[in-house]
Design goal:
Layout (H helix, E strand, L loop, with lengths): L2 E5 L29 H16 L4 E4 L13 H4 L4 H25 L3 E4 L10 E2 L6 H4 L6 H6 L3 H6 L4 H6 L4 H7 L4 E2 L6
Parallel strand pairs: 1-2, 1-3, 4-5
Length: 189
């Protein structure tokens, strides 16, 4: 199946050989886990199997975010600890293996990096590797398109990049039509 799902902050293991991550003068560390993302990834895998008879690639970091953050650059995510760097590198190696298998088998696929959030607006947030300030733009620039995780998909689309992100046929709008509030979408650009 040409689908890859990762959950970098879903782990609850606290290996004693890995130090807790700490704030530095360069960055502030976030150690809260993204609750239920590992369970959600597994549930999606099961649902795909039940519906399509095939499994997506699922990569979960089982180590707690207090120990490693696989969604940051290695310097911040592993904080120069050799054992933690190994965990970080293995997580990314599994993603790369899955990407290569999907590419070799299907030519292209979809990669979903699952996260949670703790703010009061309860909507599914679809990031596309666009910043908060980018999301408030009325129209996206070519630079936004080129830097987005859906750049290749938008190049194959007849729609503008803005419509791919939050138009009638955007992922967010399609999910909203099925009862799952999302941002960005037509109703929540």
């Amino acid at each position: 199946m040409p689908l890859i799902i990762s959950a970098p902050h879903g782990g609850d293991d606290y290996p004693s050989e890995l130090p807790n991550r700490t704030n530095t003068s360069t960055y502030t560390v976030t150690t809260d886990p993204d609750l239920w993302t590992a369970n959600l990834a597994r549930a999606i895998r099961t649902a795909c199997s039940n519906r399509y008879g095939r499994y997506p690639h699922v990569i979960i970091c089982n180590v707690h975010r207090a120990k490693v953050d696989c969604n940051r650059e290695i310097i911040e995510g592993a904080q120069n600890n050799t054992n933690t760097q190994t965990v970080w590198k293995e997580f990314h190696a599994y993603i790369n293996i899955a990407r290569q298998q999907v590419s070799n088998t299907y030519g292209r696929g979809l990669y979903i990096d699952l996260h949670g959030h703790g703010h009061p607006i309860q909507k599914n947030e679809i990031g596309y590797d666009l910043s908060d300030s980018d999301m408030f733009k009325t129209t996206f620039s070519t630079t936004d398109d080129n830097e987005s995780t859906i750049h290749a998909m938008s190049e194959r689309s007849r729609q503008s990049f803005t419509d791919v992100v939050r138009g009638e046929l955007s992922l967010g709008s399609l999910l909203e039509k099925r009862g799952y509030p999302c941002v960005p979408s037509v109703s929540s650009p």
